[in-house]
Each structure stands twice: as C-alpha cells, then as structure tokens.
Amino acid sequence: MAYLALLERWNRTYNLTAVKNPADMVTRHLLDSLSVMPFIHGSRLLDAGTGAGLPGIPLAIAQPRLEVTLLDSSGKKVRFLGHVRRQLGLENIHPVQDRLETFSPATVFDAIISRACSSLAAFARAARHLAQAPLTLLAMKGQYPDGELKEVPGWCRVESIEKLEVPGLQQERHLVIMSVNP
Questions:
Q1: Chain centroid, CA 28 distance in Å
Q2: Which of 23, 39, 100, 139 is the most exposed place for a label (fewest CB within 10 A)?
Q3: Domain residue ranges of the chain, discontinuous segments joined by +
Q4: DSSP 8-state secondary structure symbol assigned to residue 119
C-alpha cells in the first residue's frame, strides 16, 4: 500500500498512469500485477516497458528474493522508480532507462515480462537479442490475443496461454507464455 500511496502522489504531477482512483489502483494495478505470480520462475526478471513499475514492483515486494530490473524509456518514470526504491528500501528492484530492443545488460534474465507490449510478435522481436540461454517471455494481455498469435515468429514458441483471475476486475486478462532459444 505504501507503493500505491507513492504512485498516487506522483501521479498527480507526472501522470504516470491513467488510473487516478486509489481503489481502482488496487484492482487494476496491484492485483492485476500479482495475478501472474504463479508463473514467475527463477531469480531474475526483466519488466520491459514497466511504466510506473507494473507488474515489477508488486512482484518484487511479494517475492523479496526476486531481482527485478525495471526497464522504461521515460526518464520521469525511471526517476519515480528510483524514488520508490529509496523510499521503500527495495534493494531487489533496479530501475533502468532504456528501450528493450537496445538494452544490453550485464546479467542474464530468467524471464522478461511486459504488461504493455504492443503485440506478441513485436515483444518477441525486441527481446530476442537477450536470449543467451532459453528465455521465457511473459506477455500480459486483456482479451485472448487470437489475431496476435498468428503473427508470432517461427523461432518463438507459444508455450501456453493462461486465463488470469483478478479479483474485482470484470475484464478479461490473459498471460501468454512464450520461449525463445539463443
């Protein structure tokens, strides 16, 4: 809840998220982010296009042993993420300003998650260069992405599509789990 309080305060000035109502933030941001927790494996996660830190920050709070790199191209959002790290003492989050397709980390990630990917194919293409070992891509989507599935490149395998249950949210949510080999 301390994270949501910071988000609400900074959102007034920096417009980090379209959701303004704190009660809606609990459902649309916090619970939505945590709905993917059963599918997070490994110890290193990259949250691509994290924006205000979603889903990375709620996952890092819920799983303190999980190292989460929060990647976003917006300087104001990365400054907010750094503030959250300091204020909440979250040593397991690492804000980085960059774009996924140009990001060149020193570490290897177990998975890359995106809540804001434009399409499954674009997400896979942007992340492919990071597959130094078998890499899991986790794409959070609303409705079942039937049309997008047809566009996934042949070198990227769709492992499963999980229907997510988000308490209090009436809209559909899905998680597309894909794998990319080097």
A1: 14
A2: 23
A3: 2-180
A4: -
- Phi, psi of 74, rounded to the nearest 5 degrees: -85, 120
More confident residue, 51 or 18: 51
Nearest Cα neighbor of 118 from 18, 48, 34, 39 is 48
Residue 77: how many CB atoms within 10 A of its CB?
Answer: 22
Q: Quick check: 137 and 180 in contact, CB under 8 A?
A: yes
DSSP 30-78: IIHHHTTGGG--SSEEEEET-TTTTTHHHHHHH-TT-EEEEEES-HHHH
- Note the pLDDT of residue 155: 95
Domain spanning 2-180: CATH 3.40.50.150: yes
pTM for the full predicted model: 0.95
d(CA 70, CA 49): 8
How far apart CA 61 and CA 3 sit, in angstroms, is 9
Phi and psi torsions of 176, nearest 5°: -95, 120
Spatial distance between the Cα atoms of 111 and 101, rounded to a whole number of angstroms: 15
CA distance 59 to 62: 5
Residues paired with 61 in a beta bridge: none
Nearest to 157 by CA among 126, 132, 134: 134
* Two structure tokens written together for 132: 């130094």
